[in-house]
Amino acid sequence: MKRFWLTFSQAVTVLLAAYFVLATLQPGWVQELSRLALRSTTVPLNAPWNSGGPLTLSERQPNVLPDAALGPRPGSLRSAAKIAAPAVVSVTTHETVSARPLHPAIPGLFGPFVEQPPREQNGLGSGVIVSSEGWIVTNHHVVGGADQIKVTLNDGRQTMAKLVGADPETDLAVLKINLKNLPVIQFANAESVQVGDRVLAIGDPFGVGQTVTNGIVSALGRNQLGLNTFENFIQTDAAINPGNSGGALVDVDGHLLGINSAIYSRSGGNMGIGFAIPISTVKQVLNGILKEGRVVRGWIGIEPRELSDGEDNSGQGVLVGGVLADAPAAKAGLKAGDVILKVNQQPVRRVAELLNQVAALSPGQAVIFAIQRNNRILELSVTPDQRPNRNVRR
To answer: Is 171 assigned a catalytic role?
Structure first.
């Protein structure tokens, strides 16, 4: 027995000595021998994640469960994205710009007309499917003037779309496509949104493909931006870039809060200030276009102005700068210099607010305007007319 252990120890000593010599003089040989030894040692694994056959020890991966089995992770917005994303589409437009003269023909100075050849102009934006019948809401500035409009769904289907109607004063438009089994987004409760709520912006920025970004509601009721006649924007810091216009701003339930429309940017890219048209305005325009082919708004024919510091009335009221002859305001007795305090019992503080309140009035139905004139409070009955039409329909 002693002889056996002596022989064994001598053999181990020789092998270790040989190993260290090889590792020192020929390390490449040792690595290759180790790799061959591991490759020859295969272990069949029948775990759910091993569907590709037996793995070697060197290839074996940790036993990680499929992602779906883990459920939603804390703070994840995957459910909202999964619900809303299928209803958001990419909108591609094509427009042929007709030939125009570079300058007028003035004999002896410029010579004859010099015409530019017709040129092709393409545009890119997004849209949201709001009905299984194929109605899509997008921005007017995305599709206005286009000769052809193509819609690409998130599932890869493509089709040509028809411009049903548009409302430039809110920068909204309605398209129609004819496809079956369309995903439809659900509308959020317009009154439920609050500053600080988490939101997702979904669209096709720069044409890279559908993209989801997240942020919060930064502000509500943004106006006086000079973008539209009627402004009541939701402001968000969710990244919105060129191509996102017409896409969806959704809440954590995947319901539509607004249509992404514009960004504040000095570079052309996202700077954390984006604007979406709220769902209340979207529904008003959509219903008007589908039912009557246009959006019907009230109009009284005045030139409103903000009160200056010297005309301050405790932060309330809009100054009447002028009144059009024979307009509803003139017929009701409104005069330049009057301060409108309330419309139909609703306080008026800013010009944008007055425009929205008057636009919401039904033409032909009289309402009471509370005004201040020479330190006196008066009530006048005003019957609005229909606002001159700037809607577009094809």
So the answer is: yes
